Every structure is written in structure tokens, then in C-alpha cells.
Amino acid sequence: MTLLGIGMVLQAVMPGRRRLFTMSPDVKGVRSTLDQASARQLMHQTVLSVPGVSGVRVRVGRRRARVRALVEFGDPDAAHQAVVTAANRALATYGLRRLPRLRVHLGTAAGLQPTQRRMRRRARKQGARAERKSS
Fold first, then answer.
1. pLDDT above 60 for 111
2. Which CATH number fits the domain that encloses residue 94?
3. How far apart are CA 52 and CA 48, in angstroms?
4. What does pTM read for this prediction?
5. Within 10 A of 78 (CB to CB), how many other CB atoms are there?
6. Cα separation values, 95 from 3, 25, 81, Å
7. Is there a domain that residue 95 lies in?
8. Phi, psi angle pair for 64, to nearest 5°
9. In this predicted structure, what is the pLDDT of residue 135?
10. Residues contacting 23, CB < 8 A, separation 6+
11. What is the extent of the structural domain holding 98?
């Protein structure tokens, strides 16, 4: 009985297969996994193929996939939509049992106009500052 308890404690403390994603089985009785590094590399290549994107950083975890992309040219809003579509397509092709939630952040190169979201955020901040000054 004591050995069983020690064995359970050791299994709880030792790292398991945290860096592996379980995939949905196509054939009954066959188990397959995909490691985080491969998932990250595949998503990186997929997002980098989007026109206008010059740099990508990808982090893939069990619950969340984060993509940071740099747009060199073109419409940032259209590029954002294309990056989201490409990343979702990449996640769908993995065949994972549980898809991680996707977060996409888009940066622009120097000299490009800020995205509409940033412009709205800036306007809200300026409005809040104006309210503070008037009170």
C-alpha cells in the first residue's frame, strides 16, 4: 500500500507529456500526438506565407496559441483578417482533440498608419484626458 502511494506521488511530481498535444484518432485504437515545437513551426510557416507579413512570433500552449505578426505593407486590417484566417486554418489541419484559443496581435512597421483599433483607443484616451482636465 505504501509503495502504491509513493508511486502516485512520483507520477504527480514528474513532468508528463505536457509538450505533447493529443490528436483526434482517425483509426480506432491508434493514438497519435503532436509536439509543441512542431505545432509552433507549422503555424509560423503558415502565417509567414500571408502577403504583407514580414515577421512572426508564435507561442503555442495547451490552452492558447499566440501569434504576433509584423506587417510591412498593405492594409493592416486586411492583413489582420488574413493572419487570423491562416492561423485558424493551420490549427484545424493539426487534427487536435482540443483546439487552443487563438490570440493574434498585429504590429506595423515604422512609417505605416496605425490600425483602426489603435486609432480608436488613442481617441478614447485623449477624450478621457480632456475630461480630467475639464473637471
1. no
2. 3.30.300.30
3. 9
4. 0.62
5. 13
6. 39, 9, 22
7. yes
8. -140, 145
9. 63
10. 32, 33, 34, 94, 95, 96, 97
11. 18-126
